[in-house]
Specification:
Elements lengths: L1 H31 L2 H10 L2 E8 L6 H11 L4 E4 L5 H12 L3 E4 L6 H4 L3 H19 L5 E2 L9 H6 L3 H11 L3 E2 L4 E2 L10 H12 L4 E7 L5 H16 L2 E3 L18
Parallel strand pairs: 1-2, 1-7, 1-8, 2-3, 4-5, 6-7
Bound molecules: zinc ion (ZN).
Length: 259
């Protein structure tokens, strides 16, 4: 009787051991079996920063490019129609050093470009022809001067001009990019470097993909000064850097054709 009780206890103990091993085995298998979903989880948590520079080329361009080159970072330049030899040299550097060119209209003249859909298209075409002749690149990405929801355009083309233009440009195959992180370097002629850095820090907080608006202009010397700090902050916050392209992440104030 005594041995029978010992036997039952021993059998129960073995059953518990086997059961525990199976659970453990299943647990391990669940972790090890789908490596693809584990990889996908890592990819989807990636943080990407798209640095963008508007209105160049300018006297700041070569300094911006030097900083980007030193840190091995690629950015997107939304340029306008500048035809000096220096500007052409800068366009070559932008392309040769692996950055992306975007169209920011030839004239950047709100009154002219936002007068009608046709006027806008002509200005974009003019810049694309110039860029193609100069550096052999014809951008299919755009940034609207003032952003896609700007109201200054209303004075020239009326209340619905931006929805008409965005609809037309999207149907022609252009993708456009506003921004979800402003550096606020346009808030003053020459904004303080500290304000620029702080704005990027606070506006990027909690965002996985960020399109950072900065300006490449002669007077924006503090943007250039802030750039190394911005890059280092974003790197330490886990972002890697990429260029914008037709199929990349976008952020739009106004959806194409909506007013
Ligand atoms: Zn601009």
């Amino acid at each position: 009787m005594k041995y029978l009780i010992y036997g039952i206890i021993a059998a129960l103990f073995m059953m518990i051991c086997v059961f525990t091993l199976q659970i453990g085995g299943k647990g391990v298998a669940a972790v090890l079996l789908p490596p693809s979903s584990a990889a996908a989880a890592v990819t989807s948590s990636d943080k990407i920063a798209y640095l963008t520079f508007d209105d160049g080329p300018s006297q700041s361009t070569s300094r911006i490019l030097d900083i980007l080159q030193k840190d091995g970072i690629k950015a997107t330049f939304f340029v306008t129609g500048k035809t000096s030899d220096y500007s052409k040299q800068m366009l070559h550097r932008i392309v040769d050093e692996g950055h992306t060119l975007g169209n920011h209209t030839y004239s950047h003249d709100y009154k002219r470009i936002y007068a009608s859909v046709g006027a806008f298209k002509a200005d974009v075409d003019r810049l694309n022809r110039f860029l193609e002749e100069t550096v052999g690149v014809r951008p299919n990405i755009l940034r609207y001067p003032g952003g896609s929801n700007n109201h200054l355009s209303w004075r020239s083309g009326g209340r619905h001009i931006m929805s008409a233009i965005t609809r037309e440009m999207s149907s022609l195959g252009y993708q456009y990019f506003d921004w979800n992180v402003s550096s606020t370097d346009a808030a003053a002629v020459t904004q303080s470097k500290e304000a620029i850095v702080e704005s990027v820090k606070s506006n990027s907080s909690g965002k996985k993909q960020i399109i950072v608006l900065m300006h490449d202009m002669d007077v924006k010397t503090t943007t250039v000064e802030a750039l190394p700090e911005i890059i280092s902050y974003l790197q330490h916050s886990g972002y890697h850097f990429d260029v914008l392209g037709k199929d990349s992440y976008t952020f739009q104030f106004l959806r194409p054709g909506k007013s």
